[in-house]
């Protein structure tokens, strides 16, 4: 198979799971051509992401003249198909002038990728995220290009499914992929019943070989603090703003705890202010973004991962923590319950409940070291069985091949 992958911004630190999926497909002999609208080369720190940048064709780098020329070319060569794609772009753009203008730009991007897909002999296009990448591949299909599929991650797509024309994108796709059963249920809310059979679950995955036997845990209570790590973008949905208050509550209850925050983002200033306001600056370390080796090291130096998210898809960081033999404190939302088994691999707490989060921290601190180790091993066995990237990529390849053969 020769297929194209299309994304908005790629590579980037927060989507390394897509890189792993692409490379797993290539290990199966699938030829994958990467398209991205753009990439923040300056923001890449992981050598693997930097290498992936060199393999990715940046659509907008072609320039406005090239995109306009490709658009006019299709208008002249396939006028009927172009009219249909233009109507679809206008409809998906909604009633706002800004939305319609944005979708006309997507149409120009689609015209360019349609030409490139023809030159490269691509049989199918797969997009990640149900936002503009899915819009572009849907318009490519309208323009007479290859069939398409797309992976929906959430939570963004489920925040505004109608504004994103999610039902129309699912209806035109040969295959729509959800990364969890929860995600599939949310797609079923908005998709037509006739389209349900073409919605499948393919998990994001990890590379088991990158997770050898878990590192020994550092000394913990009563010989040292409970060491927690939280990994992710500093954005509203991740809920890191709850952590300083939860730590302050836990400390008032006698818990000796230290938190390492790995990541960065727009909310860093607010998070730093909350740390200061709750007087926990001596117990919190901020590392900024780390490469994959750095993330694994941060996990190995912890007793447990804490993830206080308000909204999620199926968090890769939870998989990585479990694969590294660490228990997880997470909120009871979205795909988290499909990963974390309360009392066996970690604890689930209500989202937005700072008291419950503090209690989860207290429970982790009061858990005997040998029990934490057993919970970590149970989590490791669960995630290695359910989220092997080569197994999941094989499933995705089979599903795509079936659509090509239909």
TrEMBL record:
Residues covered by the Glycosyltransferase subfamily 4-like N-terminal domain: 16-210
Name by which UniProt lists this protein: Glycosyltransferase family 4 protein
Highest rank taxon of the organism: Bacteria
InterPro entries: Glyco_trans_4-like_N, Glycosyltransferase_grp1
CDD domains assigned: GT4_PimA-like
Organism: Paracoccus marinaquae
């Amino acid at each position: 198979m020769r297929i194209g992958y299309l994304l908005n911004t790629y590579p980037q630190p927060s989507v390394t799971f897509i890189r792993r999926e692409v490379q797993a497909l290539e290990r199966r002999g699938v030829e994958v051509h990467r398209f991205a609208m753009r990439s923040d080369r300056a923001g890449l720190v992981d050598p693997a992401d930097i290498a992936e940048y060199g393999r990715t064709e940046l659509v907008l780098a072609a320039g406005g003249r090239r995109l306009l020329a490709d658009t006019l070319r299709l208008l002249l060569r396939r006028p009927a198909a172009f009219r249909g794609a233009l109507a679809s772009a206008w409809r998906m753009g909604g009633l706002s002038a800004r939305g319609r203008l944005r979708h006309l730009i997507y149409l120009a991007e689609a015209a360019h990728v349609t030409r490139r897909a023809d030159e490269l002999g691509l049989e199918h296009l797969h997009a990640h995220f149900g936002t503009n990448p899915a819009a572009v591949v849907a318009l490519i299909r309208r323009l007479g290009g290859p069939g398409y599929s797309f992976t929906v991650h959430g939570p963004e797509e489920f925040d505004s499914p109608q504004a994103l024309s999610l039902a129309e994108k699912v209806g035109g796709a040969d295959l729509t992929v959800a990364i969890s059963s929860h995600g599939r249920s949310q797609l079923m809310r908005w998709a037509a019943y006739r389209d349900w059979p073409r919605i499948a679950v393919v998990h994001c995955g990890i590379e088991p070989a990158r997770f050898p036997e878990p590192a020994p845990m550092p000394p913990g209570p009563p010989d040292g603090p409970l060491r927690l790590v939280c990994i992710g973008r500093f954005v509203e949905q991740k809920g890191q703003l709850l952590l300083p208050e939860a730590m302050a509550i836990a400390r008032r209850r006698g818990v000796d705890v230290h938190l390492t925050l790995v990541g960065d983002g727009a909310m860093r200033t607010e998070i730093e202010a909350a740390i200061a306001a709750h007087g926990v600056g001596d117990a919190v370390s901020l590392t900024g973004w780390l490469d994959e080796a750095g993330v694994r090291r941060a996990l190995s130096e912890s007793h447990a991962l804490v993830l206080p998210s308000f909204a999620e898809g199926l968090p890769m960081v939870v998989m990585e923590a479990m694969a590294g033999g660490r228990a997880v404190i997470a909120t009871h939302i979205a795909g988290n319950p499909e990963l974390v088994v309360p009392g066996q691999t970690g604890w689930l707490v209500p989202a937005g409940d700072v008291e419950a989060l503090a209690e989860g921290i207290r429970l982790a601190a009061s858990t005997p070291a040998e029990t934490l180790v057993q919970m970590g091993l149970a989590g490791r066995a669960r995630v290695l069985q359910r989220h092997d990237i080569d197994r999941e990529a094989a499933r995705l390849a089979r599903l795509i091949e079936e659509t090509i053969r239909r």
